[in-house]
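sorry for the late reply, my laptop died twice this morning and i had to redo everyting from scratch. anyway the thing you sent over, i finally got around to it. pasting the sequence first so we're on the same page, its 209 residues, then the predicted structure underneath. double check i copied it right bc i was rushing
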Amino acid sequence: MRHVLVETNWVVGYAAPAHHQQPPAQQLFDRARGGEVRLHLPAPCLTEARFTIERRCQPRNEADAIRDFVRWSRSADRLDATDGDAVLRVLDMFEARVKGEIRALKATLEALRHEPGVDVYALDDAMLDRAMALGAGELYLSPYDQAILGAVLVRAERLRDSGETNVVFCELDADLLPLDKRRVPRQPLATLYQQAGLHVIDGFDIDAL
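ok and here's the structure:
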C-alpha cells in the first residue's frame, strides 16, 4: 500500500468550487477511494481549507469586474445589448453555481472524515512537541506550518516504524518543500524528511516519483 501524506493545499485542490479544483487532487482522492493508496491528512487542515476556500473563491471576486466591464462597454458603445445580456446571464449562472458549492463546503469537508481511504488524524502530544522543537530550530516557519510539519514528520515516522516503505508527502507550499527553485536542498528541512523516510513531491502526481 502506498501512503500519501497531504495537507491544506490538497484539500483546497479537491474541495474548492469546480473551476478552482485541481484534477490531480481529485484523481488522488479517487485512487484513495478505490483502495489504491491511503491518504493521511492532519485534522486542522480541514478548518484551514474551509477558511481559504470561502475567502478566495467567492464568486463576486471574479464576477464584479466583468459586470463593470460590461457596463463600461455598453456606455462606450463597444458592446451591443444582446451580447451584454448574454454575458450577464452567464455571470448569474456562474454566481449561483459557486454559491451553491460554497454552501455545501462544510458537508464536503466533513465527508472526508468518513472516507475509508482517507485518514483524518488529530494532532497528538508527540506531534505538538515536535512542532515546538521545530520552532526552536532554524526553519523560520509560521506557527501553523510548524504544527503541520510536526504532524507530517511524526506520522511518517510511525508508518516507517510499522514497516511501511512507500510513504509520500505531496506539497505545494514552497516553505515546506525540501528543494529551492534551483533544486538545491533546503536544510535542515531536506534532512528532516530524509530521516522520516519521506519522499516529497511538488504536486499531487504521485506517479512522477
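The two ends are 15 Å apart (CA to CA).
thats about all i looked at so far, will dig more tmrw
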